[in-house]
Amino acid sequence: MRVYLGIDDTDSHSGGCTTYVGYLLAREVLRRWGPGAFADFPRLVRLNPNVPFKTRGNAAVSLALNVPEGDLEELWKLAIDVVENNARREGKTDPGVAMAVGEIPWKARLLYKIALTQVVSKSAAQRAGLLIWGGRGIIGAVAAVGADLTKSTFELLAYRGGERRPIPPSLVKLIEAFTFPFTFHNLDGRRVLIEPKGPDPVYYGIRGITPQHLLYAKSILESHGYRPAGWVIYRTNQAVDAHIEDGVFFNEPTPYSYYKIRGIVIEAKRIRGRHVVGRLDNGLVFVAYRHLGKLATELEKCVMCDVVLYGGLKPREGGLYLYVERAHVLGRYVRVKTRCPYCGGSLESTGRGWRCRKCGTRFRHIQIKWLYDHSARRTLLPRPGEWRHLLKPPGLDAAIAGFFSPRDVEWIG
């Protein structure tokens, strides 16, 4: 019988990782029911990163399984036991488990789409039609069960048993030389992106579009002494723009939501030489952090540009500010210099009007004309080290991952 299990909110700022708890659960399911129980790779589902009660990356985990109908109660108890025994109950941590048997309820699928971009209430998760256990983590657990991963990528997550040994940029360059573009987002200059910096148990995480290339990258790391205590390949909605293609966007800006808006930049300036703060013609204030690199630099120069901005809305100083994560410049309005309609001469201001420098004709009013310059069209992204998990890298083919199943490769160890 097809069963979907979701878990979320098992980590804290001082340690733990929901993907690690998912790995432990998958390993136990594998031990009890064998590899045939897995209808798909374990799933890592990223949700709206702007919610105020997230821990770090706002990730939930789900498993799509085939188990005998008589084992459903055992599976449910196993999931709760694994979460209870491994969740870091500190601070805001409030773990949850959700399970769907047979078909996934449409309310769970809708909740996933909303959770990609909005703040979802616990009561909405309770009404989604799934069996649930726990606290606020049921929101992410239900969303992970309802996730549509028609377009997906993979991430191989390796876990450490002791201290995290730093991975040198030269070794990551070697991995890229053999696996790019089938792995991606490995380096930003000399900054290594495959290793986390926090106290979680992750040793490294390699993102890609085929599991075989992820396994090859792991073998290169192991040949240089980077041997993990355990590892798993997740299918994930990372790097496919799931929030933009599947997410629900409200017309009106709401706090802590992911938002997109089109407008004309009427003001943009650096604040104390650091971050760029600007305003659109509809009054919305946007912020582009300095560490975003070219994105902030280009937006500073983008006054009178017609833009579509994407980012998270956060309350500040009595209003909502849009913290930009990407931008599309559609064009730019360029003021055409008005000339004398009689002789074509240039005009100069007289304080009370204008006068033609050539023929001397005076004008009380002049018509201001604007041209729309399409050549300014471009996409602005932050530097790779500042990409959010859901952002799709340029040129990535999100359909390739759909051709693979857990029967094709070794996916856990």
From TrEMBL:
Residues 135-243 form the TiaS FLD domain. Its main location: cytoplasm. GO terms for molecular function: ATP binding; ligase activity, forming carbon-nitrogen bonds. It comes from the Archaea. GO terms for cellular component: cytoplasm. Residues 4-69 form the TiaS-like TCKD domain. One of its GO terms (biological process) is tRNA wobble cytosine modification. Keywords: ATP-binding, Cytoplasm, Ligase, Nucleotide-binding, tRNA processing. Signal peptide: none annotated. ATP-dependent agmatine transferase that catalyzes the formation of 2-agmatinylcytidine (agm2C) at the wobble position (C34) of tRNA(Ile2), converting the codon specificity from AUG to AUA. Belongs to the TiaS family. PANTHER family: TRNA(ILE2) 2-AGMATINYLCYTIDINE SYNTHETASE TIAS (PTHR40705). This is tRNA(Ile2) 2-agmatinylcytidine synthetase TiaS. It comes from Pyrobaculum aerophilum.
